[in-house]
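Exercise 7. Given the encoded structure of a 183-residue chain, write a plausible sequence.
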């Protein structure tokens, strides 16, 4: 049986596809090479992680961050993360700072050790490591781009059509469109 999801770092994506460890690699920049097909998908939406239950009910607007000490978890290149940070700040979000994925996970597990009150991030698909952290979607037209890559000569002819279905689902503005896939 195949493993449905394997986490790899950027350098391992090419190897994982070539070795048959996975069929699709999701990344920010795509996997380059003559043997690979990479397609852009809609950006991943951002959420705000709070160390305690937030005051607002359903969505966070950037101005809700203005009075908090917040960070942006960098799940992409530093230049893209800085652009996203500036977009949040220019939308009334006050002043934030960048933090690494490792710093984000450490904060979520032991938020008492840091002054950070909230982290803007891509919500992990399953995040049960720290029940003290709660997530709300950020109401801002900003996110991290997402690419999907696969072998051009992959034995499964249906992979391109699956990528098209993912693209349609992520672009769907209905309540059942992007919500469940990204939360």
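Solution.
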């Amino acid at each position: 049986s195949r493993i449905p999801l394997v986490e790899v770092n950027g350098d391992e994506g090419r190897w994982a596809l070539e070795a048959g460890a996975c069929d699709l690699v999701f990344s920010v920049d795509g996997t380059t090479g003559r043997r690979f097909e990479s397609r852009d998908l809609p950006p991943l939406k951002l959420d705000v992680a709070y160390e305690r239950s937030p005051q607002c009910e359903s969505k966070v607007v950037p101005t809700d961050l203005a009075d908090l000490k917040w960070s942006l978890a960098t799940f992409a290149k530093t230049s893209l993360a800085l652009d996203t940070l500036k977009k949040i700040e220019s939308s009334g979000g006050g002043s934030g700072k960048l933090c690494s994925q490792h710093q984000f996970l450490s904060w979520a597990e032991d938020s008492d050790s840091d002054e950070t009150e909230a982290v803007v991030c891509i919500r992990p698909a399953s995040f049960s490591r720290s029940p003290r952290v709660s997530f709300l979607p950020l109401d801002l037209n900003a996110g991290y781009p997402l690419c999907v890559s696969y072998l051009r000569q992959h034995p499964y002819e249906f992979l391109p059509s699956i990528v098209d279905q993912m693209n349609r689902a992520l672009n769907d503005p209905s309540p059942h469109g992007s919500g469940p896939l990204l939360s």
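Remark. The mean pLDDT is 78. Students should compare their own answers with the one above.
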